[in-house]
Specification:
Pfam families: Ldh_2. Among the domains are: 81 residues, Malate/L-lactate/L-sulpholactate dehydrogenase, four-helix barrel (Hypothetical Oxidoreductase Yiak, Chain: A, domain 1, Orthogonal Bundle), CATH 1.10.1530.10; 166 residues, Ribosomal Protein S8, Chain: A, domain 1, CATH 3.30.1370. Helix content is 40%, strand content 17%. It has 11 helices and 12 strands.
Length: 356
């Protein structure tokens, strides 16, 4: 691993790379900050490493800089937005802002986001909802090289298809932010393990024949292996729900063979934004007091021997952000190499940006 690097140095380098690759200053700032924050929150699979994917997508014409969320349909409570294959961090942020405005006005919004390039960590859009005092529920599909096998299947057919549920803070607790892929492990973690010669844990991967394996290299050969869904049939069911709700319904672009292009990554999403004040009963202190009671009860659970106690979703990300602010961000060697290659080719002095 390489680093640690100060977050502001990484943001400055990515910002410069993106601007020299054709992005406006505004777009570059949004994408750079989003990628670095993903690393800071402990989700490196959606962080700085993605710049190599974006560079390839730009080269192939699968990613269009300086696009914005285009409203296709606006019939409350429904909002349909097209991303025109622009940077997903910009498109999804703008689409979520539009949905927030409508949920604030009418109590709820059903957002269909289609045709955005990789939107990154879905939790960042959940955080937008939290900041607005709204509940957000996101189902997302991934139209790219299939990585995950359906339960009982021996070949990859699905993306890592994430789900996010965000609930605002209450008087007694910070925000609840549940954000997870439906695959048992992130593809980037397999890449890092393969690059460093390490095996992964049992029960995460199958090889090209469908047999269990701990070799992460199976994901980078032809034919590839596959990542298993988390929790067996349960994770598979959620991944398939994302494919239907986000891909087929919201985006009209499920991850079928005819929709796949080498080097292309497209996300579609179906999201539900709700104003909790429009739903909650005011008796017994309303939803906030009852939520505090639930979380208090759960966190009061005695820990397992030698354990650290019960965590609530969102807590690990807050802890990781605090550590990153204190200690900096560590990147894997492949990502550092990509930064030097891409930045150098664009005429940037990468070591100076990184503080070397």
């Amino acid at each position: 691993m390489s680093g640690p690097y100060a977050a502001d140095r990484l943001v400055a380098l990515l910002d410069a790379i993106l601007q020299r690759s054709g992005s406006s200053p505004e777009e570059a700032a949004i994408v750079a900050a989003n990628l670095v924050d993903s690393d800071a929150t402990g989700h490196a699979s959606h962080g700085v490493c993605q710049i190599a994917v974006y560079a390839k997508s730009l080269e192939l014409g699968h990613l269009q800089p300086n696009r914005h969320a285009r409203v296709v349909r606006d019939e409350a409570p429904f909002l349909v937005v097209d991303g025109e294959v622009g940077y997903g961090q910009v498109i999804a942020r703008e689409a979520t802002d539009l949905a927030i405005a409508r949920a604030k006005a009418g109590g709820a919004c059903v957002l269909a986001l289609r045709n955005a390039h990789h939107i990154g960590r879905v939790g960042s859009y959940g955080e937008q909802c939290i900041d607005a005092g709204l509940i957000g529920v996101f189902f997302v599909n991934v139209v790219s090289r299939p990585l995950a096998a359906p339960h009982g299947g021996g070949r990859p057919r699905l993306g890592t298809n994430p789900i996010c549920i965000a609930v605002p803070a209450t008087p007694g607790h910070p925000p609840f932010l549940l954000d997870f892929a439906t695959s048992a492990v992130a593809a980037n973690k397999c890449r890092v393990a393969a690059a460093t010669g390490k095996e992964v844990a049992d029960g995460l991967l199958i090889d090209e024949r469908g047999a269990p394996t701990r070799d992460p290299g199976v994901m980078f050969r032809d034919p590839t292996g596959a990542i298993l869904p988390f929790g067996g049939h349960k994770g598979y069911g959620l991944a398939l729900a994302c494919e239907i709700l986000a891909g087929a319904l919201a985006g009209g672009l499920p991850a079928l063979p005819e929709n796949l292009r080498p080097g292309r990554v497209v996300n579609n999403a179906l999201a539900f934004l709700i104003d909790p004040a429009r739903v909650s009963d005011t008796e017994n202190g309303g939803w906030q007091a009852l939520t505090d009671a639930v979380l208090d009860h759960i966190q009061d659970t005695p820990p397992v021997p030698g354990g650290d106690g019960v965590l609530v979703p969102g807590g690990p990300e807050r802890r990781s952000r605090a550590l990153a602010a204190e200690r900096g961000i560590t990147l894997d060697p492949d990502t550092v190499r990509a930064l030097h290659d891409i930045g150098g080719a664009l005429g940037l002095d990468v070591p100076v940006f990184l503080g070397g």
